[in-house]
Amino acid sequence: MNLLIEVDTTNGQPPWRQVHDQLRALITSSTLAAGTRLPTVRQLARDLGVSAGTVARAYRELETAGMLSTAGRRGTVVAEITEEYTPAELTALARDFVAAARRIGVDRADALSAVTAAWRAGAD
Fold first, then answer.
1. Helical H segments across the chain, by residue range
2. Alpha-carbon distances, residue 115 vs 30, 49, 111, 112, 124 (angstroms)
3. CA–CA separation, 78 vs 71, rounded Å?
4. Where is each HTH gntR-type domain found (predicted)?
5. Between vectors from CA 81 to CA 117 and to CA 3, what angle results, nearest 5°?
6. Where exactly are the structural domains of the chain?
7. With the C-alpha atoms ordered 40, 43, 46, 52, is the resulting torsion angle positive or negative?
């Protein structure tokens, strides 16, 4: 599987967080569907040029958040996303949005306007 994940060692964000945030975005956008098997920790680490510990931490954090599941010989798979959420998950989603907005140069006012517009559009 070729995941569209990149690690930028010059952006100041820890590599494990970059892997975590990008995987979270792929899962929440349904680009990675429930049941999708992810590469092994070692394989993804090799593909990204990072340590296995970096990928292991990202996987572990996502498993704790209920987004990944490790099932023995089946490996690590994307978990079924439920409609329920915790405040921590909502905060993580907001953090992901803020990080993405900052990466493309959006300021706070424009980001909040985009959220408000999206919220209104979804209220149909």
1. 15-28, 41-48, 52-64, 87-103, 108-121
2. 19, 35, 6, 5, 15
3. 11
4. 13-81
5. 85
6. 1-81, 85-124
7. positive
Identify the three-state secondary structure at position 54. Answer: helix
Per CATH, the number for 1-81 is 1.10.10.10
Residue 44 has phi, psi (to 5 degrees) of: -65, -40
Residue 55: which of 16, 11, 7 has the closest Cα?
16
Tokens of 109: 């006012």
> How do residues 10-66 score in pLDDT, each as one tens digit?
988 999 999 999 999 999 888 999 999 999 999 999 999 999 999 999 999 999 888
Q: Token match 């952006």: residue?
A: 11
